[in-house]
Amino acid sequence: MSNLFNVIHWDVSPEMFHLGGLSVRYYGLLFAAGFLGGYYILERFFRRENIAQAWLDKLFIYVMVATVLGARLGHVFFYSWDYYSQHPGEILQIWKGGLASHGGAIGILIGIWLFSRNVTKKSPVWTLDRLVVPVALAGALIRLGNLMNSEIVGRVTDVSWAFQFVRADVENPLLPRHPSQIYEALCYLLVFALLMYLYWRTDARNKQGMLFGVFLIGVFSARFFIEFLKENQEAFEADMAVNMGQLLSVPFVAAGIYFLVRSLRVPEVRA
Prior knowledge:
The chain is 59% helix and 7% strand. The chain has helices at 26-48, 53-79, 81-84, 101-120, 124-148, 180-201, 210-226, 244-265; strands at residues 2-4, 7-10, 15-19, 22-25, 163-165.
């Protein structure tokens, strides 16, 4: 990686090393780090609120399964149904790549509903208020994984911090482009920092839906606007005024506004 004429020449291999026949990739490690970091953060939350450790262990399993399945099916149905409808046997072949963050978000919502129904017997929003804090951090790590994979690249630009994504699967990969993965990662880190502040320094955790609403507004507003700087992920998006990622972000932002406003109107709910 070198700097040439104010352009960052990005030619990083997505593989860290090989262990026997196993390829260890940055993306996989960053994805796993997001889950492990999330577990540690939630453990601190649960300890503070005197919540049973057994709940956390079960929550981890629900979220892990829901995230992977949701992200995969989101990619299949939102972006590549034309292909997978003809190759249904490849739908669950996650190792070949193809995960969608909006699908992951939907998967998490379903997983939390099941977790709340079967384990906590509390409102799913109670769980989401705590879960979204580490999810914002995990989202930042996943975007850094996308950077290491040279995927989800930005549009051509002349900004001084542009990247040449040499390994990207795009036309003219040597053209300077926005490092959109870094933009999103930074936005998600800011949302994470804000949520941590609200949880530890304010009474936001007792205002049911506040943390969840702030998360939805922050993450999906950032996603909506950064999409203008990205290359479209699928060919069918070329003639769209706003792409699929933006269309899917709008209802999440609207839901975030609803939960935030609602949290300011209802009494505090303590664990």
